[in-house]
Amino acid sequence: MNQNKAPLYEAILRYVEKDMISFHMPGHSNGRGVPRYLKKLFGNDLFKFDLTEVSGLDYLHYAKGVIKQAEELAADLYGVKNTFFLINGTTAGVHAMILAACKEGDKIIVGRNSHRSVIGGIIESGANPVFVHPEFNNDFGIITNLTPTVLEKAIQDNLDAKAVLITTPNYYGIQGDLKKMIDIVHKYNMYALVDEAHGAHFPFHPSFPSSAIEYGADMVVQSAHKTLPTFTQTSLLHIVTDRVNTDMVEQVLAAIESSSPSYIFMASLDVVRREMAINGRKLWEKAIEVADYAREEIEKIDGFRIVDPSIINGKDIYAIDPIKLAINVEEIGFSGFEFELFLNKHNIEIELSDLQNVLLFVTIGTRKRDVKSLLKVLRSVKKKSGGVEKMTPFPVAGKQVYSPNDAFNLNYKIELLDKAVNKVSWGVIAPYPPGIPVLAPGMEISQEAINFIHIMEDKGGMIQGAIMRDDTIYVRVVDDLQ
């Protein structure tokens, strides 16, 4: 296909040039009714492009015109059967994959390292999760990936499962042995679903890990906005194999996504697809050079260590994304949470922190002078005395007493975390980032999970789903008196 075209973007431009008189939503009427404070913030032109399903601009959930053409160009670029534009983030794509593959009561095998959005999709579908525990890198204190051996054992123990959802690469750019895992899933005639949120850029340079698309996963969802220059909330859902009922996926997306999709979001996906097709390799070549420069210089600074290909072991760590800079700071006496605050005070914003590390992304917008500013700050750091607490391995999933859907439909009560041992969680509890659930609805609460939550909160982590009252943590548990 002609990747020089951007059909949705071009149609929007043509429409805006007509300067149509607006008697339709949105309520700002092509920007004419925008409050001056918003105009000061965004300028006058942005709102002209904030359109709805007007003449000639197609409809996302019944795409037959320019949106369909834009999605077909994306599918052609990524080498898949179908691509769907997502305007509710990768969360919507994860939910759609699960709802299209599993019905109420079906088993789905999922990595314990899955994002909290996976639990949402399982609740919606009524499926029963089988959690498989990932590996843990003790040196850096990072949850890595499932191993093929552990995954196959879980599949053999649950041969009635309908699907397997694999999350890789992780937030830190560490990819597992994806090809082997997908081959194993297909050997047992299950759907291979891959949350590749951090891999939308993989096809555009040979230095990146291979995408799950190349390895033949059935469905793959990617967060375009995480690494590509699109608007936040924009993602891509790819249908790769003939095993998938594409019509079902389309109907599911129409049910769970907004019926008033943002044309600004969709146009950004269309234009960035074109940019990646034409200039992607050149742009990423420069970004990788910047990331390599940063890595080399950081490693020269006493007290800092950085995740690099030396940790690859061919099992749970099979490849490393070169644009992710995970910097271990424990030797300088800081926790990652503390060091993030230090960097913020020096006008540097990062992606995330944990007990031992800070994580930085390099994108096509990162300049070498940005790295030099970072290096100047890192070289100014004075070591603190005293040790830093090592990251505790992620707790094993507790017994699944109820399916997440069943638990979610029961009444709950609020319980002091320390008194919740052996009770059943009603909600999702996930330290964020990276948003991996420690507790899921229907899961028995272990002392190990309680201890982990306390450690993360004590050291500065945010515990999504918990209730904080002063310095005391409460959680929602299934009310056993109903």
Quick summary of this structure?
The chain is α+β, with helices and mostly antiparallel strands. Helices cover 34% and strands 16% of the residues.
What's the helix and strand layout?
Elements: H1 7-17, H2 36-42, H3 66-78, E1 82-86, H4 89-101, E2 107-111, H5 116-125, E3 128-132, E4 136-137, E5 142-143, H6 148-156, E6 163-167, E7 174-175, H7 178-187, E8 191-195, E9 219-222, H8 224-227, E10 235-239, H9 246-256, H10 263-299, E11 305-306, E12 319-320, E13 324-328, H11 336-345, E14 352-353, E15 357-361, H12 368-379, H13 404-408, E16 412-416, E17 430-432, H14 447-458, E18 462-464, E19 467-469, E20 472-478
Parallel strand pairs: 2-3, 2-6, 6-8, 8-9
Antiparallel strand pairs: 1-10, 4-5, 7-12, 9-10, 11-13, 13-15, 14-15, 16-20, 17-18, 19-20
Helix pairs in contact: 1-10, 3-10, 4-5, 4-9, 6-7, 10-12
Supply the key terms.
globular, Aspartate Aminotransferase, domain 2, four-stranded antiparallel sheet, alpha+beta, Aspartate Aminotransferase, domain 1, Ornithine Decarboxylase, Chain A, domain 4, seven-stranded mixed sheet, 482 residues, single chain
General description of the model:
The protein has about 475 residues and is of the alpha+beta class. About 35% of the residues lie in helices and about 15% in strands. The chain has 14 helices and 20 strands. It has helices at about 5-15, 35-40, 65-80, 90-100, 115-125, 150-155, 180-185, 225, 245-255, 265-300, 335-345, 370-380, 405-410, 445-460, and strands at about 80-85, 105-110, 130, 135, 140-145, 165, 175, 190-195, 220, 235-240, 305, 320, 325-330, 350-355, 355-360, 410-415, 430, 460-465, 465-470, 470-480. Helix 3 runs parallel beside helix 10 (about 265-300). The termini are far apart. The mean pLDDT is about 95.
